[in-house]
Each structure stands twice: as C-alpha cells, then as structure tokens.
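MODEL INPUT / OUTPUT PAIR
PAIR INDEX: 1
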Amino acid sequence: MKNRNKNLKILKELFWDYKWDSVVEKLDSPFVIAKVLEIGNKEQAKELEKAIGVNKIKDFLEKYENFLSKQSLNFWRLCYVIQSKRTQYDELVIKKAINSFEDAEKEPEILIFKKVRWDTIKNFFIKEFARI
C-alpha cells in the first residue's frame, strides 16, 4: 500500500485543491477518473489505470461520456478501443494508425513542395479523429 501511494503521487498535482487522502480513497470515482483523463498526461493516466484497472476506465468512458470534452472522450475511446454509439471502427486499423505516428516521428524529414512541420500534420489528423 505504501508503494502504491508513492506511485500515485504523480497524480497529486491534478488535485491541488483537494485533500489528497480523500482523493486516494476515491480513485475509482467518476470525478477522479474524469480529471485525470481530461487534464492529466499519459504517465498520470497510466498510473491511474494501474491503480484502478483498465475495466474501471472503460466503464467510465462508456457511462460518463458527458464528464469529458468531446476531444478527450474521442481520444481515450481510441486508446482503449471503445466504439462510440454512433460509429464503428476496426481495432486493428486504429492501432496501426497510432503506431504509424510513432514510426513517422522516427523517420528523417522528407523533401516536399511546401515546408510543413510534422507536428502540424500530426495535429491535423488528431483534430480530425476528434471530430468523428
């Protein structure tokens, strides 16, 4: 338990305005999950997942969609491969797309007609996914 609390300290900065002990007691509450997924970083989200389990997060994403912004909700649904009620997509295609971004970031810059930064291209596709 002591080691668990030490690992959870990565979340503490997100809850600066609450008593930390009360947050730790209610880690699996919709409020805590929403705050971590909405404003936390990847490491904070992974630490929450380790503490409460992937199924709690998936349940949250299915039941409490109004707790997150549309962008965050779409992003986390893609990460956890949860289908929207309106959209169907193939899990393999999504995993390939995410891996393609990671692979592309490792590649050297290519010559193109118009100078465009990779971040601009990546952000375009991320925004387009969020609209879906």
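PAIR INDEX: 2
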Amino acid sequence: MKGYEYDLIPRFSDFDKFGIVYHSNYLEYLEEARINFMNEFLRISLDNLFEAGIKVYIVSLGIKYKKSINKMEIIKIFNRFIIKKNIKITVDFNIVDMKNNIIAAGSYDMVLVDDKNNLYVEYPEIIKENIKYIKNINGYTDFINIENFDL
C-alpha cells in the first residue's frame, strides 16, 4: 500500500501477560500516525485546528485484525487520506510488520465541526489553504487523494 509511512515500536506496557497487544492500542497507534502526518506533511497541528475553532471527529471506524504484533517488533503504519468534497476525510490504513505482512487493515471517516459542534458545510479556510499547499507537492498522490472540487 502506498501512503504516509509511520514507524512505531509498541511499548512494553501495550502487551498483556500473554504477549499480545490489546486491540484498543491499535487505535492509539493510528491516532499517533495521523497526528504525525498532520504535523510533518500538512504543516498543521490539532492545536492549530482547535485555535481556529475546528474539531475533528471520527464518525466511523472499521478494522480487521489479521495477526498479532510481536514484542519489540517495529511496525509500520501506512495511511492514505481521501479528502472528499462532502466535507469528510477518509483514511485507509494498513499496519504491517517488518516483512510487510499485514497485521491489521481498515479505514475510518472524520468530519469537521465548529466550536458549537455544528458540521461544516464547506471546508474552513485553514483546510482549503492546506489542500492548495498539498496539490503543489510533487508525489502528493502517494499519500492523499483529493476529490475534484472547487476550493
């Protein structure tokens, strides 16, 4: 899978007494990868969004677990963002081991709401500016698919 790659070593505390990463920790790994992607690639942080009165809510999530994560194993998370014209952002992801075996795969949908929890009906300016910025980066389509719509 093409996408933004984020490497992570699960913490010792993420494993239960049987040496298995508890399933809810996968969601934390996805969040860590998404925030890192926003900071590094999009030049925007959650703090920037909050200051602009924008909240990001995950409204749906699907994940299929294929195999366990081994202790002290580096995992890779590949995120591919799909920016949709209906003001929804979908993230497809794969979590893989060092041999590129899929550990887990799925997707989640995010929406943007204002500080009164109203859904945005168009992308806020800070997001539009970042979409324009992204479109000028060579190879951005490896990480992001932007539906064709006017900004």
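PAIR 2 NOTE: The longest strand covers residues 102-113.
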